[in-house]
Amino acid sequence: MADPVEVIRAKVLDGVPHGFLGRRGGISVGEVAGLNAGLGAGDADGAVAENRARAVAAVLPGARLATVYQVHSPDCVVVTEPWPIEARPHADAMVTDRPGLLLGIVTADCAPVLLADREAGVIGAAHAGWKGAIGGVTDRTIEAMEGLGARRERIAAAIGPCIARASYEVDDGFRERFIAQAPAMAGHFLPGRPGRWQFDLEGYVAARLQSAGIGAIEPLHLDTYADEARFFSYRRATHLGQANYGRQLSLIGL
User: Could you report the per-residue pLDDT of 152-170, keeping only the tens digit for each?
Assistant: First the structure.
């Protein structure tokens, strides 16, 4: 009997259909074994479609899944209905106020961020890798939610599984990009090996949400790199010399 899909939920989003999924409960095999949801992972299209169907059924049965072509940008789009796979806009965040839709973000170390204003009936989902995070993808998502009637002080946000500081080594140039933008962000870097730093992506994203006026923020503190049995990781796959890596799916709906 196949393992059930594991759905990780955030307390801050109680009552809102949502879930951060890992690799448990899917049908993919090989290096992407499990619930791989990535179309660019070298996996069979049929396996990815089945994995995505299982994910939807585990979070909001009968909902329609909307995804974008993620490009590590700060761009956010408003969803009224799902796009055909071949016509997905290039963006890294989505918002909607339409019942029956599930917004889906794929990640493999980057931070998935799910947001909701329950009172307004508006939700958002963002893919926050370091490029999108420093570029303001969460700010754009909040602004787009406000355009649909949300208020930032009512928005709750959860940050799902992503690479943790202990697993995320970066160089001096990487750190300098962030410090140049905001010197206060230096606290998200701890010294590592000579010329190297350990970057807290989750903490940085949480700080951006807080500075934007989001009052309810829940980082889940789950390290994709360190937990191979539970999560896919781009950096881990690279360090292991693997040809491909899977992507996990994070979902939120109405």
Answer: 999 999 999 999 999 999 9
* CB of 45 closer than 8 Å to CB of 104: no
- 243 vs 144, higher pLDDT: 144
CA 119 – CA 126 distance, rounded (Å): 20
The residues pairing with 21 across neighbouring beta strands, listed in sequence order, are 7
Dist. CA 57–CA 69, nearest whole Å:
22
Q: Please, what CATH class does the domain formed by 7-164+200-248 belong to?
A: alpha beta
3-state secondary structure of 177: helix
The mean per-residue pLDDT over the stretch 109-127 comes to 98
For residue 118, how many other CB atoms are within 10 A of its CB? 16
Between CA 153 and CA 123 the distance in angstroms is: 14
Structure confidence at residue 2 (pLDDT): 65
Once rounded to an integer, what is the mean pLDDT over residues 36-63? 93
Domain boundary assignment for the chain: 7-164+200-248
